[in-house]
Amino acid sequence: MRSSLLPVLLLCTALTGVIGGAVHFIQRDRQALVDQFARERRAQLQEAARGVSEALEDVGEDLRFTVELLSQPGTAEEHRRELRALLEAVGQYKAIVVFGPDGREQLRLLDRRTGESLARQYPADELARTAKSALQGPSGHIASSPPLSTDASGWLRAFATALPDDAPGGGGAVVVLVNAEPLFAPLKLLTAESDTHLLLLGAHGAPTPLSAPSLAAHYQRLAAHPRDTPGFSELARRMGEGEEGSRLIERAEALTLGLGDAEVVASFAPVRIKNGAMWPLAMLSSTRGLRSHERNLVLRLSLAALLVSCFLIAFGVYVVLARSRAVALQESLRHASRLAHLHDKTQKILDHIPTGVLALSTSGRITSANRAIGSRMPPDAVGATLAAAFPQAHAPVIQRLEELVDAAGGDNRVRSLHGVPLQLFEEEGHFNVHAVPLEPHQPDVRTLLVLEDLSDLRALEGQLLRAEKLTTVGVLAAGIAHEIGTPLGVIRGRAEYVQTKLGAEHPQSPGLGTIVEQIDRVSRTIRQLLDFSRLQPAESRAVPLVPLASSVQELLRVEAERRRVDLRLEVSPTVPPLAADADQLQQVLVNLLLNACDACGPGGQVRLTASLGEADASGAWGQVRIRVEDDGCGIAPRHLHQVFDPFFTTKKRGLGTGLGLTMVAHIVRNHGGRIELDSAPGQGTRVTLQWPAAAPAREEHHVG
Question: What pLDDT sits at residue 614?
Fold first, then answer.
């Protein structure tokens, strides 16, 4: 017996040594894990800091553009209009103020959306101090203010730069009042993990609202108690000097700072603005997750060693006892009973799992089926072939399953099909199919065919993808508003300037007026895109459809002629006015007609019709049916449920953003309407809008 146990004991000793060595190496590489963690966090911080620096640099570019604008010859009213265009184009700008060389205010422009509240608490002294700081600084320097005392959010900051001495008026300074919170939005992504905290200091050394409250409070106490948190104090000193890097804060100090019971990796880097002050930034990430992972790994290894050792010892005892004939007979009976129990248990497990399992014989007939698949097959499926068990399936589908089973049995390996569309029942679904070969000496159960229905999972994935795209629209809208708004404001200002110079009687004056009008409409569209993810009631009024449709036809006439498409409008004058925002309704019609033109080849036809809805013949307080039809290429059936998803497009790269129909659906639903789509490849497309009609105007009765 001793000789039988000796190999088992030696094997257990060797296994314990291997596990102990693995634990030793994990502990030895602890510092390497922390260093790798620090490098990853530092790279994330540097990437976010670059994004914020670029946003701040955009403010600096706008200031420099304003200086160039004010340095150009022109009247004060012209400068006022051009500055007003810039103020309205950039949503986070709240005011633009121009000071003379003596520090006195010469021009004040307030944002029309928040002008009244800002005028009541106008920070005149703080803006004047910021302008004075810019006047005293070197040429091109951008001065910034501390948080304004009148701003409860803590994000309202003033940025200023000096005008050149040769500018009209002898110089001075221009100040832009900015809501800085959107500029620092990339930093919020860093705090997605609960163990990560930020400390962002303003240009004047005060913590911003983005800083973790506990870190901001300790930073305020550093001057009085620097020795309480020496690591944090050293971090603050290096941040103040504009350095970047990483350092480790010990567990006890991290506990004092409210960062958890683990060491903290502090990564820091300055957010810089060209010719301006820096904003020190630090990201403090707890290593609690690394420590927990390490402890769990060591615990699992130790538990695995214990379980394997116990198993080997039990196996050794079994070998010793098996030498006895009586014990061997007893063990055989026990195993037989256990196999019967396992058979029953296995059958119960198979009946309760949601995945379908079929047992196939060597001849390809079904010998058993669990409850998940048996309830969907005919009652006599057991004993039948796959073709008889799935009567709704087409012959190629059955042939594909049979080939999969034959391939698995041929080389005795599991063969699988992942996410394939198969019509096994009344409706087509997506399945994972696995053919599992079993022992060849069991002819009744030679192969298991496992059918995993993924239809519900695919539907859930589609919903999650649409939600993610809608979230992305908000971020994209902010970028579009900033990148497009400023040049549009400049174009509008220049067009107004030229129109003023030419005079109202000049032949080109109406064309310039059209440019200004269209730029205003684009600006409104940009603001609507910003509101895309915030579903708000539309400001509706009675809009006659006939003149609006005529203006859309005139707007698209040149484009239709260029594509050689026949664009027709059939709108009866009896159609009642619609309850709509005119610009949004125009945007819907333009998008639908442009998509229809894109789908048509040369010689194609696009038709817009409007009529009263069937539900209300009078039209008042009812529905108006608007249809846009084309005889173009049509839409494939697999794409019909995706056309209204954000960023989905079948056009070539650069020819479409995938937002047109998304915006159309958003506007229609926001007005209480409904949109329907009918299309087939090669037969054209028809889009039907059910749009609410405007309420009838109240009649006035005069008593004589």
Answer: 58
Three-state secondary structure call for residue 641: coil
DSSP 207: B
Mean pLDDT of 400-427: 82
Q: Quickly list DSSP for 285-327.
A: EE-HHHHHHHHHHHHHHHHHHHHHHHHHHHHHHHHHHHTSHHH
Higher pLDDT, 287 or 479: 287
* Helical H segments across 412-544, by residue range: 455-502, 509-530
Which residues share a beta bridge with 156? 179
- Is pLDDT of 626 > 90? yes
Helix axes 545-563, 582-599, angle to 10 degrees: 30
Count other Cβ atoms within 10 Å, centred on residue 58: 16
Tell me how far apart the alpha carbons of residues 543 and 576 are, in angstroms, rounded to a whole number. 9
The structure tokens 């173009």 sit at 632
Q: What phi-psi label fits residue 383: left (phi over 0), alpha (psi between -120 and 50 degrees) or beta? A: left
DSSP 412: T
pLDDT at 241: 86
Greatest mean pLDDT among 134-138, 237-241, 597-601, 626-630: 626-630
Q: Tell me 581's DSSP state.
A: -
C-alpha–C-alpha distance, residues 631 and 683, integer Å: 6
Q: What pLDDT, in 10s, does the model give residues 110-135?
A: 887 776 777 778 888 888 888 888 88
pLDDT at res. 701: 41
Using one digit for the tens of pLDDT, what is the confidence trace for 327-349?
Answer: 677 777 787 777 666 666 666 67
Q: State the Cα–Cα distance between residues 356 and 403, nearest whole angstrom.
A: 19
**What are the beta bridge partners of residue 338?**
none
Q: Which residues lie closer than 8 Å to 474 by C-beta, 6 or more apart?
A: 532, 533
Question: Cα separation of 374 and 353, whole Å?
Answer: 12
The b/e string for 525-564 (b: 16+ C-beta within 10 A; e otherwise) is bbebbbebbeeeebebeebebeebbeebbeebeeebeebe
C-alpha 556, offset from chain centre: 33
